[in-house]
Amino acid sequence: MKVAVTIAGEKAKDSAFVVWRGFEQSIKKASEYGYDGVELALKSVEDIDRAQLRSWLSKYNMEVSCITTGQVFADLGLYFTHPDPEMRKKTIEVFKGLIDVAGEFGGLINAGRTRGFVGPGQTKEEAENLFVDTMQILCDEAEKKQVQVLIEPVNRYEINFVNSLDEGAVVLEKVERSNCGLHADVFHMNLEDDKIGGSLIRNAKWVKYVHLADSNRYAPGLGHIDFDEVFDALKQNRYDGWVSVEILPGDDPDWMARKAIDFLKPKVMNYR
């Protein structure tokens, strides 16, 4: 198990839900604080210079854990269940570019709210069919790059489609692709899943990536989520992937990032 922290480019808008901004300085800090890697929040391939990224990762002995795509939804208004075929086509093109980046760095790409929602005048079945069709296209493209496409269940207060791991597993069964999976986020699970540990165990075959934040969305250890339960479930699953700190940065992002890794380090060492 390795631990990452979320970062974005210096010019990223507030919609980039990350701890730090500015790629090189964030990679440097993450390395100094004891993280193993960084999760890159991108909205297009133009956001990052890949040659520079390779140089920074090498310089600071770091890895990319995953490419995340929240800005594709929040800034560009693109998502899998869009009723307009042209907008879905744009979504697919943007994602294909980011899949190419993931093929070089990390091998994972997520779709949080970008997976879409049940829109006005749309039935859940219609939205689900559009989601499945889009996922199949993207998974087929991703397979060529040896990339896995992950959906992140998000709580009902933020979106109305795929809120829990159980719901995610149901729709992924319909995608029928071996390179799709679930991106579990314990903050959202605390609101939506019956038991965080039980849900992780029940959906073990799908869980390929994990976001860690406490109940208040600050660093693990600052709220009431039982992280022993989380790590015990992952250990029972023999999970060997990434856990990533996706938290509110608060008034002092450096303090928050350090608080997170200091809390997680003993648990990860015990896990290993």
Descriptive keywords:
single chain, 272 residues, alpha/beta, TIM Barrel, nine-stranded parallel β-sheet, globular
Number of helices: 10
Q: What characteristic shape results from the CA principal axes?
A: globular
CATH homologous superfamily label: Divalent-metal-dependent TIM barrel enzymes
| Number of strand elements | 9
Give the % helix: 40-55%
Instruction: Give the overall average pLDDT.
Output: 95
Structural class: alpha/beta
Whole-angstrom Rg: 17 Å
- Please name the CATH architecture: Alpha-Beta Barrel
CATH class equals Alpha Beta
Let me know the largest β-sheet.
9 strands, parallel
Can you give me a brief rundown of this structure?
By secondary structure, this protein is of the alpha/beta class. It has 10 helices and 9 strands. The chain is globular, with a radius of gyration of 17 Å.
